[in-house]
Structure formats: structure tokens, C-alpha cells
Amino acid sequence: MITLKTPQEIEAIARAGAVLARLFEAVPEHVRPGTTTAQLDRFADEFIRDVSGARPAFKGLYGFPKSVCISVNEEVVHGIPAERRVLKEGDLLSFDAGVRLDGWYADAAITYPVGEVDAEAERLMQVTRAAMLAGIAAATPGQHIGDVGHAVQRTAEAAGFSVVRDLVGHGIGRGPHEEPQVPNFGRPGRGIALEAGMVICIEPMVNEGRSEVRTLPDRWTVITADGRRSAHFEHTIAVQVGGPVILTAIPGVDPPGAAG
Ligand code: MG
Question: How many CA atoms lie within 13 A of 174 on its CB side?
């Protein structure tokens, strides 16, 4: 069942989203060679809990052991922060976090460079973010889930990359994962029609090489099957008559309201 959110409920999700936006503003200065992913996890956990009432949404979710997901290079998503995982110059670090505040969830992800990265890594990050923004721009009332997926897929594939198909975006609200599913591929006009009041997470995972992924024996970490790198960007957005509103937008970085 897809629940439409009232303007007041969307504001509540935006308050959770604003905590994430501030976290994502603060993370880059900690992303450097020699830092462990466990240190980044602790930083995020404390940052979120410092906000009255806010909790890291992923801690314990389906049994996930840490507060945020950190996935490096060929790791696509759901990487488990670890003391032994030390960042190196040139790594790509995908940082995925959720916040629960006053009973409402928001979810976002950014891929950061660790120090200087090669040109192809830079391009992979830029294209993945562009694919996310193209998907967001397509999320207007009357458009379909397939239009969103198509916009994401077209952007990624036009650049010579592939989109992960085994993992999808999702609705969000009182729960961290609600209906509908939001695939990063699709055909225009297919799937359910979007309506004002839907709140969804658009989160392309874009691979340098082939789209296939597999899960490591830790039962969490998803990696590319071909071992090449992957990037991940995600925003929580509200479908609105005037255009999509990004509820996890970083001021000065992301389009503030209607994405263009
Ligand atoms: Mg998500």
C-alpha cells in the first residue's frame, strides 16, 4: 500500500532529512586516507544522536550491526564499517545514512572521493549524481515509476556505465522502506503513476562495468560481480504539484526545491 503524506507529514520527514543534510556536509572533512570506516560510523552515530530525538535509522535495521553503511570501491551498498577497513588515497567511498526523528524516516547517500581519485572515478561519481537528479526531475504527478527509472538508466548508460538492477529505491515515511519500489531502470509510462504526496527515495547504484552484483559471506556487503567500482547517490524526495522537493537537500549543493 502506498501512503500519501500530508504537507505536515512531509515537513516532519524534511526535519529528519535536514539532519542528514547537515551530516553529509560534515562528513567530507573526515574522509581522508588513513581513516577507518569504523571511525566514520562513530562520527555519524554521534552526530545524529546529538540532535534531540534523532536516531541513526540503520542501526539494528533487519539486524544491521552499525549506524551507517559504508561501501568502498567495488562495494556497491550495505558495507559494514570496520576498524580494519582503512581508507586509501584514490578510494571511492559510498556513505549511506538514515535518520529517524519523531517517528519519521529520511534516507540519503553520497559517494565521496578519498583524496585524489582518477578521472574515471570522478566521472562515475558525476554521472551517478546526474542520474539521480534526472530521476528526481522525472518524479512529477502523472509521470510513472518507469519514467523515473528510465531517466536514471538513460543517464547512466549514455555515459557507458550500467545500473544495478537487484537493488531499488523505495517509498519512505513512518517506515524506512515503504511501497512503491523505485527501480533505477524502466520504460516510460510503465509502473504506477506518481501522485502528489508520495515520498520516495531515488538511489541509483551505477557500476563502472557490468550491472551484476553479488553479496559477500558477511550477508550484507553487496559488491560488483566483475570487481569494478560502483557509486551510489540517494535523496528522499516528495512528489508535489509544483515539482519534486528534495527533503534531504544540502543547501548550496542540491537544487533547493523543484529539481531541474
Ligand atoms: Mg534507501
Answer: 6
List pLDDT tens digits, range 43-96: 999 999 999 999 999 999 999 999 999 999 999 999 999 999 999 999 999 999
The alpha carbon of 253 and the centre of ligand 1 are apart by a number of angstroms equal to 20
Task: Give the span between the Cα atoms of 90 and 114, in whole angstroms.
Answer: 5
Name the grid cell of 227: 570487481
Q: What is the 99 CA–ligand 1 centroid distance (Å)?
A: 11
247: CA distance to ligand 1 center in Å? 13
Spacing, Cα 97 to ligand 1 middle (Å): 8
Global pTM value: 0.97
Region of residue 178 (left: phi > 0; alpha: psi -120 to 50; beta: else): beta
Domains and CATH numbers, the chain: 7-246 (3.90.230.10)
Q: Ligand 1 centre and the CA of 122: distance in Å?
A: 23
Burial of 242 (0-12, 13-18, 19+ CB in 10 A): exposed
